[in-house]
Amino acid sequence: MAATGRTQGRRWRTGLGKSAAAGLVAGALAALAPATAAAEGAGARTTAPTGAASRAAAADEAGTVREIDAFVRGRLDATGTPGAALAVIEDGRVVHRRGFGEDGRGRAVTPDTPFLWGSVSKPVTGLAVMQLVEAGRVNLDEPVRTYLPRFRLVDPDVSDRITVRHLLTNTSGIPASAGNEIGDRYDNAPGALADAVRDLARIAPTSRPGTSYAYSSAGYAVLGALVEEVSGRPFGTYLHERVLDPLGMDHAVATEQDFERERVAPGHRSVFGTPVRFDAPYDTAGVPFGHVGGSLRDLTRFVLAELDGGRLDGRRVLSAKGTAETQRGHVDGSVGRYGLGWSVGTLKGTGERMVWKDGALPGHHAMVVMLPDSDRAVIVLQNAYHQLRAQEFGDAAFGAAQLLSGATPRATPTDPLAIVLPWTTAGLAAALLLCLAAPALRRLPRRRTAARARSRRRIALTTTASVAATLTLAALLWWLPSTLGGTPAMALLWIPDVGWSLVTAVVLALLLAAERTALGAWDLRRCGGETPGPRRAAVQPRRPRSVGSEHAGRCSCSPGDPTASCWTARPTPRGTGGAPSGRWRREPGSLSRDGAGGPPNGTRRTDWAGPRPRSARTSRLRASAGHLS
């Protein structure tokens, strides 16, 4: 479509030249009138196809726009994004701009709805630094400490060798994890950016400057502080005066006051597949690397200036050479090459050179895809984000750019981890809760009886193994976010369903370990303080010989002896005033019983079988513990 527009321009200029030449010839030589008529006819014939081509191009453009709208809407539905805004630039002009869904406050999203742009802020910071370079106030290859003496890492020698170019190209040696130290601080106090940079003094570099690439938001925070130091103005103020206002970005956000005035749309985070509104405060310390924002119209004007070599509506914010330098791939990055704030690669399906940047904050996603060789671009702003589905959010802009170039986009399938991980961590937390409540669900008297049946060694080993297992589980859960490149605090902020499930599981695991320790100590006390050793054989009661049918198997006395002191096995029914049911009682005519639990005085122990055990289970437990029945 861009080629069609340029062809139409050439035809228009050619027709104009022919008409002017024909007029001069007709006025000078009347004999050439037939030739003049022929030339005008040719011009008329040329005009007619141009109008047809224009209508065909417009129809083709409208069809492409409809395809882009349908594709973007499908990606929004797939990710559960409540609202978004889309802009399409063709041949250096905006041909389509619209909103989708709601802004989180019940209002429809429009091209004027403000969003936060995330890391799309980095090209804005890169442009600000290049302005100082072109003004002769900063040299890309000078050490950062030349302009910002307070900048320091753990290793002072490495700090002295880091240049401005190293920071812009993410080759300073500052690790990506350093962004966790200074990111998402939500600090709006005066000097917040300077304080964030000062905190880098406890960060150790992971490589020598200029030797390897590591994406680092912390490096762009340092660049923002450098702009403040050199210009003598807060970074947000500098952006307004030198970048945003000159480009007519009237509703851009670069300060806390802008954020409150423009009422930026709230973001949305996914909680078990459902978008949940998230009203995060502004972060002045994060402006250079993530907290510039504004409406779709604002970001569109910035992109138009980038496509036109740093100029828009006759106002230039950077030279064409400086703009090209920011969009040139300087080093190999994690995806393609990296320039001075922009990523550089080729568009799938066409191989066309592509300059792009995506950005994310908790609840927000933004993406710009530029095709500088054809003056095309696509911009997509979304008021939702899920860290485990980052590629799906980027598909909306990448796919739209492919459709704009005539290629067929292919949507990225949902990562199974994004579905499985939240429910797995939540299930693990529920299982730990059941384990913690298990002792209360069982009857403690049973545990007390079982404790008597175990040795101290067995109790100690069981308790130690249980406590060690739960503590190991807690450590693994706490370590899990680091495998995703974050911390538990970041998990709570960026993927709250996983983060809260992990924190809950860790707390429950620690409580379970404490509970197991306490129950183990209690069991050791209840087992009677016995030391491990061979079990004592259980003493079985001696049964008397059977000598008569009336006293069969119970004693050795004479059946008719009235002075016999034997006890018989005849139970007395309850409520009859006799001995309790199940106890031995004296036969009529014998001496009176003087105790409910044993024989009267003078009775031979061998003639008495004692009280019956209450239950077979209790008998076995007592026998196994080495106690007399």
Automatic annotation (TrEMBL):
Biased composition (Low complexity): 532-541
Pfam families xref list: Beta-lactamase
Domain Beta-lactamase-related, residue spans: 68-387
Highest taxon, organism lineage: Bacteria
Keywords assigned: Membrane, Signal, Transmembrane, Transmembrane helix
Glycoprotein as UniProt keyword: no
Signal peptide: 1-37
InterPro entries membership: Beta-lactam-related, Beta-lactam/transpept-like, Diverse_Enzym_Activities
Transmembrane segment boundaries: 417-438, 459-480, 492-514
Region (Disordered): 526-629
Keyword Transmembrane helix among UniProt keywords: yes
Coiled coil: none
Identification of the protein by name: CubicO group peptidase, beta-lactamase class C family
Source taxonomy: Bacteria, Bacillati, Actinomycetota, Actinomycetes, Kitasatosporales
